[in-house]
């Protein structure tokens, strides 16, 4: 999204737990653990190297980075997380269990997991009714959404520039009959307002999609001109100067919270095994009937996938897209060390083969 996207100031409106996205999912955790009594919930609205910013009904402050002592891969508090604060200082004591999470592998550093955003309700997967429309890309975003356990909504923009927008809607819908497909002219208020059902008070949403598909245009309308507009919050940098930094979680006119972080663009297809099994459930089920456990569905005998293609029961192109994503996921999920070892082994194998040929 372009930097001139207008931001409403979360401090402007009265802050309530529910308005911040508090749900029974979180309340239950409080109720079930006596040790948490008396702690105050606040939501992480921004994450920097220097620390977090949290917002709650009676708190709006910077905090040092928080790592939940219970540990694990996802122990760092990230944007959208709920923390429980000590009433005095305030200090973060506990992180509440998330209901959804976008994460990625940081490139080049082996297995380190980077958390992008937590507790997101809806991901708007935006594409246009033109050459940007690409079924493989939609499947890729869908896989990321399913992995994160966030409800996907397809948003098809620029119908006003297309001869037959319905054809695009039909193609998107065919990917998954259970997903809502909205076809909207992003430049009109009526168009953007079609997204309001997912943007109620306390909902958390995020937009993904290629550059130029209309994400900023939609957000501008949803931000609303009448709300107090800022470019972010002022923070002192190390040299004591005021720098303006955008918050990564900010509020739309309807009361929803928008995740706006560059991390969303850099999501890679690592660790999306579950996502792939949901998006391509029919194909993974089918592959369980292949004779070989590790069937690549190429030329193996007894391949159930190939057989189903031959009988005309499944779409061969979809199978190819699935195989490509599965391969990409496996490659991304490998650590750098494993990748190097694999390359080395391959190099050795080629050398030996060449030697054998020469002989
Ligand atoms: N005619 C028409 N133009 C649109 C529509 N949606 C977006 N546009 C135009 O497409 C251009 C790109 O829109 P943006 O909102 O900047 O796209 P973006 O997805 O935010 O792009 P990035 O900021 O690069 O990620 C702008 O000139 C918009 O006015 C639409 O539904 N109809
Ligand atoms: Zn097979």
UniProtKB/TrEMBL annotation:
Its main location: cytoplasm. Keywords: Cytoplasm, GTP-binding, Hydrolase, Metal-binding, Nucleotide-binding, Ribosome biogenesis, RNA-binding, rRNA-binding, Zinc. Gene3D superfamilies: P-loop containing nucleotide triphosphate hydrolases (3.40.50.300), Probable gtpase engc, domain 3 (1.10.40.50). Residues 110-267 form the CP-type G domain. The gene is rsgA. Zn(2+) binds at residues 290, 295, 297, 303. This is Small ribosomal subunit biogenesis GTPase RsgA. GTP binds at residues 157-160, 209-217. NCBIfam families: ribosome small subunit-dependent GTPase A (TIGR00157). Belongs to the TRAFAC class YlqF/YawG GTPase family. RsgA subfamily. It is found in: Cytoplasm. Its cofactor is Zn(2+). One of several proteins that assist in the late maturation steps of the functional core of the 30S ribosomal subunit. Helps release RbfA from mature subunits. May play a role in the assembly of ribosomal proteins into the subunit. Circularly permuted GTPase that catalyzes slow GTP hydrolysis, GTPase activity is stimulated by the 30S ribosomal subunit.
């Amino acid at each position: 999204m372009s930097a001139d996207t207008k931001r409403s100031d979360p401090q402007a409106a009265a802050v309530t737990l529910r308005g911040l996205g508090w749900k029974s999912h979180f309340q239950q955790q409080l109720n079930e653990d006596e040790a948490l009594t008396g702690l105050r919930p606040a939501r992480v609205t921004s994450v920097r190297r220097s620390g977090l910013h949290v917002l709650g009904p009676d708190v709006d402050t910077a905090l040092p980075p928080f790592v939940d002592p219970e540990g694990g891969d996802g122990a760092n508090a990230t944007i959208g997380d709920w923390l429980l604060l000590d009433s005095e200082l305030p200090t973060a004591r506990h992180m509440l269990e998330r209901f959804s999470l976008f994460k990625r592998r940081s490139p080049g550093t082996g297995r380190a997991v980077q958390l992008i955003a937590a507790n997101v309700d809806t991901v708007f997967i935006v594409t246009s009714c033109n050459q940007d429309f690409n079924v493989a890309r939609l499947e890729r975003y869908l896989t990321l959404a399913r992995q994160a356990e966030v409800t996907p909504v397809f948003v098809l923009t620029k119908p006003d520039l297309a001869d037959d927008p319905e054809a695009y809607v039909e193609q998107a819908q065919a990917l998954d009959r259970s997903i809502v497909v909205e076809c909207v002219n992003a430049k009109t208020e009526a168009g953007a307002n079609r997204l309001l059902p997912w943007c109620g008070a306390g909902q958390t949403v995020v937009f993904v999609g290629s550059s130029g598909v209309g994400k900023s245009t939609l957000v501008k309308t949803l931000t609303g001109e009448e709300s107090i507009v800022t470019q972010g919050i002022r923070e002192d940098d190390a040299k004591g100067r005021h720098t303006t930094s955008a918050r990564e979680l900010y509020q739309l006119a309807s009361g929803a919270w928008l995740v706006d972080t560059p991390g969303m663009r850099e999501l890679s297809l690592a660790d999306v095994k579950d996502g792939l099994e949901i998006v391509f459930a029919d194909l993974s089920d089918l592959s369980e009937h292949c004779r070989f456990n590790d069937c690549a569905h190429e030329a193996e005998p007894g391949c159930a996938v190939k057989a189903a293609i031959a009988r005309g029961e499944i779409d061969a192109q979809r199978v190819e897209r699935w195989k490509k994503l599965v391969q990409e996921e496996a490659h991304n999920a490998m650590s750098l060390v494993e990748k190097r070892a694999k390359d080395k082994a391959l190099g050795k194998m080629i050398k030996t083969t060449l030697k054998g040929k020469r002989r």
